[in-house]
Amino acid sequence: MKLKRKIENAEKIRIGLFVSGNDGGGVRTSLLNLIHHVDRERFIFYYIACAPGQLVDDMKKLGLTGIVLGRPLPAIKSDPHDAQSGMLFTSALYGIAWMGSRLPGLIRAIQALNLDLLHSHRVHLHVIGGIAAKLVGIRSVWHIRGVLNRRSLRGMAVPVYCMMAKMFGDLLIANSMAVYQSLLQSAQKKTVVVYNGHPIEKIRREQVSRDFWHKFGVPDDALLVGLVGRINPNKGQDFFIRIAKRIAQHRTDIRFIIVGDVAPGQDAYCRWLHNFTRQSNLDKYIVFTGFVEKAYRLYSTFDISTFCTQDTEACPNTVLEAMAAGVPIVATAVGGARELISHDHTGYLVDSKDEEMFSDRLLCLLENMKEAKAMGQKGYHRAVAHFSELRMIRSIEQQYIQLIPSESLA
Residue 182 and residue 44: Cα distance in Å, rounded? Predict the structure, then answer.
């Protein structure tokens, strides 16, 4: 591929961050960390967003300029557990039409911003981003933050996605080995693993006191077990409540904290959780906080943190935040959690269907808080060594540099 321009020694590499516009969760956290700490002597970022949204506003606050293309791709309405759902196929067809309609605008945006590289941050943006980059003559990076399946790909089969990656992607960044292994070999050849990074010292420094829980009626002497994440079935809040029901039969001095707002389309599930809590006579023991700004500040108040995801999660930020806060974790052994947690050293990993073992592991730590605190400190040191935001950012910067031909930097 012939590049549209060569980068001289003193020039900054101009990078377009291709986003939906209202991205949340790990995408938002990782992107804002990258923008805030990137080497500004070597790189300059611009945004290209499908639609206005909170992430665009956040990037503007950090000094970025860019272009908003138009309307976003609508969310899938189908049942996430229905692999045969016709809605997935419909979504795939709509996605193709959407990409075709947005391609000319994306090409114009790349040219207007005079980009050297396009870094796309959602799987449904990768293909259109790769095609546009090829047509303009620049490199493209596809950042994959979810294990690939028909749902995460909006109905596209994994082999089709990997074929597109081979044709149009210059580099794929997977945020865990779980993501890497969900790719076919043809795409793996273009893939590097860069784990999510977190501002570890900031998480340690910005903590709230136990007084925060007074408004929820939590006694000062209660032990706290926390679960942080948006309320939806895959996050396993129902699993967590069943664990609480088991433990409450043995211990009455423990409070189970569910932190997070309701994911779009999951209001019925949230109502069911509250009803299940009442029917199980657990109102005294379970606290629903709803949305909490900067929820990472709560970890220091937890005695134990949990991760209860049932299906898969690529590189769970809640696990990294708990480790950064020095809190031990009991987690379901799914997705990237198996890579972040060192079993029996920084926490425990348990089969996602084994409620009895999960309860036993929690009780084991709750009855030996000295061991639990030691485990939490080991988790903190592991986070510092492997999952800091600066480690992530320097790794990504190195990938950017390697994508620019050596003669352009000579």
Answer: 32
| Cα-based distances in Å from 253 to 45, 231, 248, 322, 367 | 50, 25, 8, 22, 11
Tell me: do 213 and 321 sit in the same domain.
yes
Q: What is the DSSP letter of 298?
A: G
Report, in angstroms and rounded to the nearest whole number, the Rg of the chain calculated over CA atoms.
Answer: 22
The number of C-alpha atoms within 13 Å of 153 and in the hemisphere containing its C-beta is: 20
From the list 200, 129, 106, 251, the residue with the least C-alpha distance to 391 is 200
- Please, which residues bridge with residue 262 across strands? 231
Q: Are residues 233 and 324 in the same domain?
A: yes
Cα 336 to Cα 312: distance, rounded to the nearest angstrom: 8
Q: Are 266 and 282 a contacting pair, CB within 8 Å?
A: no
* 189 and 42 share one domain: yes
Same domain assignment for residues 393 and 314: no
* Cβ atoms of residues 362 and 306 within 8 Å: yes
Residue range(s) defining the domain that contains residue 99? 13-197+389-409
What is residue 154's predicted lDDT score, i.e. its pLDDT? 60
233 and 366 in a single domain? The answer is yes
Same domain, 36 and 118: yes
Give residue 4's identity as a one-letter amino acid code: K
Same-domain status, 171 and 239: no
Distances (CA, A) of 395 to 39, 117, 298, 400, 402: 12, 16, 29, 9, 11
- The DSSP symbol for 294 reads T
**Cα(320)–Cα(317) distance, rounded to whole angstroms?**
5
Measured CA to CA, the distance from residue 103 to residue 166 in angstroms comes to 19
Interatomic CA distance for residues 396 and 177, integer angstroms: 16
Mean pLDDT of the chain: 88
Nearest CA to 49 out of 35, 67, 61 is that of 67
- What is the pTM for the complete model shown? 0.86
- HSE of 340 in the Cβ direction (CA atoms, 13 Å)? 37
Count the domains in the chain: 2
Q: What is the pLDDT of residues 184-218, one digit of tens each?
A: 998 999 999 999 988 898 888 888 999 999 999 99
Q: Is residue 260 part of a domain?
A: yes
Is 96 in the same domain as 206? Answer: no
